[in-house]
Amino acid sequence: MSIDVTSEKLNVQKGTLEQSIVFESGNEMAAYAAHQINYHVMGYYPISPSTEVAQFLDGMKAKGEHDIVLIPADGEHGSAGICYGASTGGGRVFNATSANGFLYMLEQLPVQSGTRFPMVLNLVNRSVSGPLNIHGDHSDLYFALNTGWPILMARDPQIVYDMNILAIKLAEDPEVRLPVIVSFDGYFTSHQKRRVQVIKNKKDVHDFIGDPPRNFPHALDRENPVTIGPYMNEPDYINNCYQQSEAMYNAEKVFDRISKEYAELTGREYPVLDLYRMEDAEIAVFMLNSAAEVCKDVVDRLREQGVKAGVISPNMIRPFPQRQLAEVLKNVKAITVGDRADSYGAHGGNMALEIRATLQTYGNASTKVINRVYGLGGKDFYADDAEHFFRLAQDAVETDFVEKPFDYFGHTPGDPDKAPQRIVNPLKKEDLVTGLITVTPDDETGELKVKIPPLRSLTKKPKRIASGHGACPGCGIFSGLELFFKGIEGDIVALFHTGCAMVVTTGYPYSAHKATYIHNLFQNGSATLSGLVEMFHERKRRGEFEELGLSDNFTFVMVTGDGGMDIGMGPAIGTALRNHKMIILEYDNEGYMNTGSQLSYSTPMGHMTSTSNVGSFQNGKPFHHKDTAQIMAATHIPYVFTGTEALDRDLLKKAAKAQWYAQNEGLVYGKILITCPLNWKSKDELGQEIVGAAVNSCFFPLYEVEHGITTITYNPEEKNKRIDVTRWLELMGKTKHLLKEESKDMLQEFRDEVERRWNMLKAKHESPYL
């Protein structure tokens, strides 16, 4: 994405540099600052609401607006590793993430700060949750407090831009030399557009931040090889930590210095504490980021009523501005601290605990502290709410007593009369029509014989997922899943990874699932279900189900898609090697569609996504797609298959086989190609035609691997239905550019790879030893 910059100057500009105006969101401004800095490397992985940062940078890259090497990782843990590895090379490194993704990379963050390699990470705050919530609070931010990274706060898009420029200069200062986090509120600051003043010329940005330091040790110095991250015993390690601690406290004075320098250039200064009408305040509210702006409006109203109120909002929370806070609070009688996350069991949120520690450290026993946890999961914070926070401080002053030092604000008391009621009736045992499909092993060969009745008779079998889900028109997930489930007999327990199928079938207090359903995150679904499978079999072995009158069997199915076999591949392979009795079913929609169509490793070469844009400097995804079916076959599990709703009886037979193997031998992996009209840019009604063309072009061949023996179950060549891949590509808008003359080389490379994989598959079909 390219941001249009006007030449108009803001009237309030006081700096010496020429500046321009844009009207953009926080995510866009993080990307804009990054492209001006022109980082060397960005390792990234999509997670809402930070995903857009990489998308905007990729759009700019397609137009040649920067030189940043954008590396799509297999997950956030991988993206953090990419960034750490890149930073050891002495260049500039950038990343953006949120919530559970931040926690997934958390192990890597102390490694980077402990070895003192600078970079900048934008943490776009979102709830770390179970059950799943994707909206903004500070629960991810609070996990960052002990990582050893200085943390800068950004209340609005203007500050996001400025802090990103200040952050890299802070990180690379010789007195600091630490990676830095820029934190801003997801779906508030990240997506809401504001008028922003930017430095017009990239050269001015580079002159301010300077060149990357030349004197830091790095891994690419032939004349000075270094050992990075050695094993340390206790005496040395505590000294290393002491030096890191000193660097962290240095960050406060360095930030103060460089923010003054920045103010001279731009007219915008960021002291460690943002203070609003605190000069004579008797009551105050302490807030992080966007909610502080709401409180400022309320302060103006209270001041008109004669109430001496003020707002404190730090621009930096690591290191925590203890000395400055103590000075500001020495004449404040009461302060309400808003924490947008709970530190469970600690009798307060993290900010309140640190403010209480500040007051105690500086001998202030008079300022009363009231703490409220608010705004969790993106719950809005309005002016009336802010007024309530000031009123809590006023009451404490008037009564000289704090009735509830810690509590939640905005929660709803439980009401037994409003308990959720079941709306979708679960499938009863008598509803599960069985015996229509039979699977029997051959007595001599052991080969499974599957008998499928006429398809019309399978309409007697009830749907596993109720109608009324919120999928996009033409979505192929549920037609594909329901066809597969028609081949399954009896009860199932299903686990869904995070993704489109999960999001649109569950929305508390409702659920479209008629049987037991579990959710876990992308990277851990297969491990989670394998634990449940083993619990089932062990409890059954011990006779516990018979005691409870629950002796029925289950088929355990994990449903994954939207890139779940990228970030979740490691646990899936572990599950395969352990050979648990379950089915992993991947719906392949060729991207991370639930977060807005970013490329995944299953995206084919050349296809356009929001992180593989098409432009004069880039032509869609630059590398080939991952063949997950072949990867899983290499683990030597009993059964692997591919399927699609375009050949219904083929998929039904494979579903029946999958159930037999999952109940009798071990793990099954299946991959079904499904359409995503929204992000494939195709017509809603063309779903079966598109996936059918993918099969007939041999891009998505239909086959199965039983005990290592490959059988092609549908050969378009033998049926004279083979088509060129262009016949498939022309059905989708995301691939129209590949049909143009300027894309002929990439198209040929893609065509050659499809042919190579098809010929390899035919060779395996012909030989049981391949």
UniProtKB/TrEMBL annotation:
One of its GO terms (biological process) is response to oxidative stress. CDD domains: TPP_PYR_PFOR_IOR-alpha_like. Gene3D superfamilies: 3.40.50.920, 3.40.50.970. It holds the Pfam family PFOR_II. Residues 555-658 form the Thiamine pyrophosphate enzyme TPP-binding domain. Keywords: 4Fe-4S, Electron transport, Iron, Iron-sulfur, Metal-binding, Oxidoreductase, Transport. Residues 281-385 form the Pyruvate:ferredoxin oxidoreductase core domain. Residues 33-258 form the Pyruvate flavodoxin/ferredoxin oxidoreductase pyrimidine binding domain. GO terms for molecular function: 4 iron, 4 sulfur cluster binding; oxidoreductase activity; thiamine pyrophosphate binding. Transmembrane segments: none annotated. SUPFAM superfamilies: Thiamin diphosphate-binding fold (THDP-binding) (SSF52518), TK C-terminal domain-like (SSF52922). PANTHER family: PYRUVATE-FLAVODOXIN OXIDOREDUCTASE-RELATED. Belongs to the pyruvate:ferredoxin/flavodoxin oxidoreductase family. This is Thiamine pyrophosphate-dependent enzyme. It comes from Fredinandcohnia quinoae. The lineage of its organism: Bacteria, Bacillati, Bacillota, Bacilli, Bacillales.
